[in-house]
Structure formats: C-alpha cells, structure tokens
Amino acid sequence: MKTIDELLAEGVDGKRVFVRADLNVPLAEGVITDDGRIRAVLPTVKALADAGAKVVVASHLGRPKGAPDPAFSLLPAAERLAELLGAPVAFAQDTVGPAAHEAVNGLQPGQVAVIENLRFNAGETSKDDTERGEFADQLAALADVYVGDGFGAVHRKHASVYDLPAKLPHYAGYLIATEVGVLKKLTEDVKRPYTVILGGAKVSDKLAVIDELLGKADRILIGGGMAYTFLKAQGHEVGISLLQEDQIPTVTEYMERAAASGVELVLPVDVLVSTDFPDLKTKAPADFKTVDADQIPADMEGLDIGPKSRELFAEKIADAETVFWNGPVGVAEHPDYAGGTAAVARALLNCDGFTVVGGGDSAAAVRNLGFDENAFGHISTGGGASLEYLEGKTLPGLAALEN
Ligand SMILES: Nc1ncnc2c1ncn2[C@@H]1O[C@H](COP(=O)(O)OP(=O)(O)O)[C@@H](O)[C@H]1O
Ligand SMILES: O=C(OP(=O)(O)O)[C@H](O)COP(=O)(O)O
C-alpha cells in the first residue's frame, strides 16, 4: 500500500487530491454531537493542503436512499472541518454536478473543498458494478490523485471506496495507516483472556461477525440492540425490542457452538425497559423500569442493560488481557439509558489489558460521557470496519489501496 508520505515526496503542488474520508458524525437537530471522525482526518487534510494540493474531501453521512435529502447534508461537517483547520472550506451542494466542478475549479493550491454526501447518488452504494463504475468515473473527473482515509467505511464495496481508487493513482492516508497498524496487533498476537463486547443497533451487520469471533475470542458479551435476538432465541419474550427475527436460527447455532467450544457467550441478565423510545432531542426523563431479561413485558422494549448485567459484564472484562468493544450497550445518547455503556467504559479503564473501542457511536458515547479518550488503548473510528478487519476479512477499501 503506498502511503500519503510517498505522495507528498512525489509532490502534490497544484494537484487535485480526492480524500475519501468518513465524516459520518452523529448529529442532533443538525448539530454535531461528536466531531471525532473529523478530527481524525485532519492530519491528512492538513498535510496535503500545506503541500499545496487542491484538496477535495468526500464522505457519506447516514444512510440516505440514493437521492438528496437535506437531513443528511454534509454541510455541518464541512463547517466543522473549516473551524478545525482554521481556514475556509468551500462546500458544493452536489456531489458530481456543476456545483462540485465549480467548487473544485475554484480551489487555489492549499485550499480545501467538501462535496455533498456521496450517498445522495444511487451509484455510490449500488450492487451493480457498472452503475458503481459510472459514478466512480464522475468522481474521478474531479481529481488527479486519490487518498483513502475513511477507515470507518473501508468494509463497504462502494464506488468511492472500492471503484474510484482503481481509476486514479491511489495512496493510504494517515488515519488508515494508524488504524491498520493498531488493529493488526489484535490479529497477530492476542493476549488472553480476550473479551469482545458487542452492542449497538446495526444488528444484522454485526451478528455476522460472531461467526468468526467464536474461533478467536474467549468471551463474547452481547448488549445493546444485539441482545434481544439472542434472548428471543432462548425462548424469552422480548416485547417490542430491536429484533432480527430471521437470524434466530443463526444465533441459536452460535450459542450451541459457543457452548461446545468453551467460548463464554454472555447475555444481559436484566434490562431497562419502556413502552417508548426516549426523546433524544429534549432528553426528557424517560419512564422506564428494570426487569430480569426473561421478564420483558410484551408492550415494552429493552433500552439498556440493567445493574446486575453491568456487574456481570465488568467481571468478564476485569481480568481480560485484550478487550475489543463495539456498540453502545444501551441508547447512550439519553442519560437514563447511558448507565450500561458508562459501566462498560469504566470496566475497560479498570482492566490492565489492551483495550480497543471501535465505532462512530461507541467513540462518541465514551467521549460524551466524559471519559478520557487517551486512557483507552485505542479508539477506532470504525465499528463495522474494525470488526470485519478482526474477522480476517479482505476489506474492499484496503484491497483497493493495495492493488
Ligand atoms: N437496546 C437498544 N435499542 C435500540 N437502539 C440501541 C440499543 N442499544 C444501543 N442502541 C443504539 O445503537 C446505536 C449505535 O449502534 P452502531 O451504529 O451499531 O454502533 P457504532 O457506531 O459504535 O458501530 C446508538 O445510536 C444507540 O442508541
Ligand atoms: O458509522 C459507520 O460505521 P460504524 O457504525 O460501524 O462505526 C461508518 O460511517 C459506515 O457507515 P455505514 O454502516 O452506514 O456503511
């Protein structure tokens, strides 16, 4: 993989450099609640701008449906990038249309532009190679060189991640180099016990990684929206909790395999439940109660792990030599459901092993709950990406940079 340092040595003065970043930051009412992913790409953007490149920054944000949707505009991220750079950043209101070309053509060496959300275009995420290739051609028209630095999206076979680097000279940015360097340690020389904690809401994506993790981890703790498919598979009522019904046979097989191979698969023993999802805008106090995990009422959903589960999880983390955590174990954006996630974060800090936290929302939760990000072994900007890397999978965005 050629790195940005090689590109800088070759010289970028006046060249248009396309930086595929992951600026998929959490937003509340259009306000960024954690800018970690923007700060993470600054070294790359700054180095290119300082060397006289015309820097074109691109990213997805959220999951719009292949067409413009103002709720998912990258404008707030572009504005924050400008603040962090201490320099103006041009913003194009389309991705590959006239506004993007105008913004890029208007750049002087050392200046930066952000183009609108890549996923406003159906070609970005298309499963059809030709459609993705055509969109990548349109992106390629905006640049002379490609720098891949969106670690959080390298597991996606998307046009800007996978197809575009094949069309331009391509290099890995500083963030990708750092992330891969740290995560590599977890694939090569894992000190045991190795505890993995999985939570969050991208249940179908993340259930799949358990298949591989069963052969790698000693303990797998399941919280967040992930837990309810397991509880249901054990025959419990889960009410209106997040559920991946079609995955019940799969998780049943996981539980059998874990038992047979001596991997501890740990589920919550109690949960906080409510009839309503909390209001994340007003953060108004929630009406919830704590129940045992096999007593979830039919009209309620589980929104955090309960006090007994927090103790149990902390115990399974305490003596671990290696810990990997992806996914808040509750709806940590709301103070009433952040207790489980805070307990897991504390347990990581109390453990002497090497601790890695991965994922946009997990990293945001840790910082927003007031934990010192430097106290963890590593905070990865990618959740799904780091999990798939640890599985040993070939990640499209890394393979494309290697070719
Ligand atoms: N029990 C739950 N029910 C619904 N959503 C949940 C639950 N627990 C956690 N979440 C949500 O999961 C989201 C984060 O999931 P995900 O994107 O998978 O994590 P990450 O970005 O760290 O990889 C958060 O917005 C959080 O509110
Ligand atoms: O937020 C992200 O992943 P993560 O939640 O696994 O950390 C990345 O920006 C990828 O987004 P996607 O899962 O919509 O492709």
UniProtKB/TrEMBL annotation:
<feature type="binding site">
    <location>
        <position position="156"/>
    </location>
    <ligand>
        <name>(2R)-3-phosphoglycerate</name>
    </ligand>
</feature>
<comment type="pathway">
    <text>Carbohydrate degradation; glycolysis; pyruvate from D-glyceraldehyde 3-phosphate: step 2/5.</text>
</comment>
<dbReference type="InterPro" id="IPR015911">
    <property type="entry name" value="Phosphoglycerate_kinase_CS"/>
</dbReference>
<comment type="similarity">
    <text>Belongs to the phosphoglycerate kinase family.</text>
</comment>
<keyword id="KW-0963">Cytoplasm</keyword>
<feature type="binding site">
    <location>
        <begin position="359"/>
        <end position="362"/>
    </location>
    <ligand>
        <name>ATP</name>
    </ligand>
</feature>
<keyword id="KW-0324">Glycolysis</keyword>
<feature type="binding site">
    <location>
        <position position="37"/>
    </location>
    <ligand>
        <name>substrate</name>
    </ligand>
</feature>
<feature type="binding site">
    <location>
        <position position="333"/>
    </location>
    <ligand>
        <name>ATP</name>
    </ligand>
</feature>
<dbReference type="InterPro" id="IPR015824">
    <property type="entry name" value="Phosphoglycerate_kinase_N"/>
</dbReference>
<dbReference type="GO" id="GO:0043531">
    <property type="term" value="F:ADP binding"/>
</dbReference>
<feature type="binding site">
    <location>
        <position position="206"/>
    </location>
    <ligand>
        <name>ATP</name>
    </ligand>
</feature>
<keyword id="KW-0418">Kinase</keyword>
<keyword id="KW-0067">ATP-binding</keyword>
<protein>
    <recommendedName>
        <fullName>Phosphoglycerate kinase</fullName>
        <ecNumber>2.7.2.3</ecNumber>
    </recommendedName>
</protein>
<feature type="binding site">
    <location>
        <position position="37"/>
    </location>
    <ligand>
        <name>(2R)-3-phosphoglycerate</name>
    </ligand>
</feature>
<comment type="subunit">
    <text>Monomer.</text>
</comment>
<keyword id="KW-0808">Transferase</keyword>
<feature type="binding site">
    <location>
        <begin position="60"/>
        <end position="63"/>
    </location>
    <ligand>
        <name>substrate</name>
    </ligand>
</feature>
<feature type="binding site">
    <location>
        <position position="156"/>
    </location>
    <ligand>
        <name>substrate</name>
    </ligand>
</feature>
<dbReference type="Pfam" id="PF00162">
    <property type="entry name" value="PGK"/>
</dbReference>
<dbReference type="GO" id="GO:0005524">
    <property type="term" value="F:ATP binding"/>
</dbReference>
<dbReference type="GO" id="GO:0005829">
    <property type="term" value="C:cytosol"/>
</dbReference>
<feature type="binding site">
    <location>
        <begin position="22"/>
        <end position="24"/>
    </location>
    <ligand>
        <name>substrate</name>
    </ligand>
</feature>
<keyword id="KW-0547">Nucleotide-binding</keyword>
<dbReference type="InterPro" id="IPR036043">
    <property type="entry name" value="Phosphoglycerate_kinase_sf"/>
</dbReference>
<feature type="binding site">
    <location>
        <position position="119"/>
    </location>
    <ligand>
        <name>(2R)-3-phosphoglycerate</name>
    </ligand>
</feature>
<feature type="binding site">
    <location>
        <position position="302"/>
    </location>
    <ligand>
        <name>ATP</name>
    </ligand>
</feature>
<dbReference type="GO" id="GO:0006094">
    <property type="term" value="P:gluconeogenesis"/>
</dbReference>
<dbReference type="GO" id="GO:0004618">
    <property type="term" value="F:phosphoglycerate kinase activity"/>
</dbReference>
<dbReference type="InterPro" id="IPR001576">
    <property type="entry name" value="Phosphoglycerate_kinase"/>
</dbReference>
<feature type="binding site">
    <location>
        <position position="119"/>
    </location>
    <ligand>
        <name>substrate</name>
    </ligand>
</feature>
<dbReference type="GO" id="GO:0006096">
    <property type="term" value="P:glycolytic process"/>
</dbReference>
